[in-house]
UniProtKB/TrEMBL annotation:
Protein name: Uncharacterized protein
Organism: Eleusine coracana subsp. coracana
Higher taxonomy: Eukaryota, Viridiplantae, Streptophyta, Embryophyta, Tracheophyta
PANTHER family, per the entry: COP1-INTERACTING PROTEIN-RELATED, GPI-ANCHORED ADHESIN-LIKE PROTEIN
Name of the gene this protein is made from: gb21661
Length: 123
């Protein structure tokens, strides 16, 4: 498939053995990346919404209502390269860590307080 080929859809396969990003256009399907989809989901609201569904889906499908020249194999390959840079991966990991810490704090406060406030934080 050529890089400028318009896509019918992109599919993040979440199920084992190895998660993958598959693109399909003009009757052809190709895998363009494999590994964790977490960094990708952090940058795509539609993917994040699908991933957070209960129960989680076996795949996240990105598809436009009608074809657009910018939704191509090359666009997705550039997105994969950008999201796979060490700086972006570190930022996504930091974001996940901070969100889990905030969620933990929210649960503590929702249960009726933080306990002994003097034991929280540095001395």
């Amino acid at each position: 498939m050529e890089a400028d080929a318009p896509l019918d859809y992109a599919l993040f396969q979440l199920s084992p053995p190895t998660p993958a990003l598959v693109v399909s256009g003009n009757g052809r399907t190709e895998k363009i990346a494999s590994g964790s989809v977490k960094p990708f989901v952090a940058h795509l609201r539609a993917a994040e919404e699908q991933a957070s569904a209960q129960p989680p889906p076996p795949a996240i499908r990105l598809q436009l209502e009608r074809r657009a020249p910018w939704f191509s194999k090359g666009t997705l390959e550039r997105f994969v390269r950008f999201v796979s840079t060490p700086e972006v991966l570190e930022m996504a990991n930091t974001f996940d860590l901070e969100m889990s810490q905030l969620e933990g704090a929210r649960k503590i406060y929702a249960q009726g307080g933080a306990g002994d406030a003097t034991s929280c934080g540095p001395d």
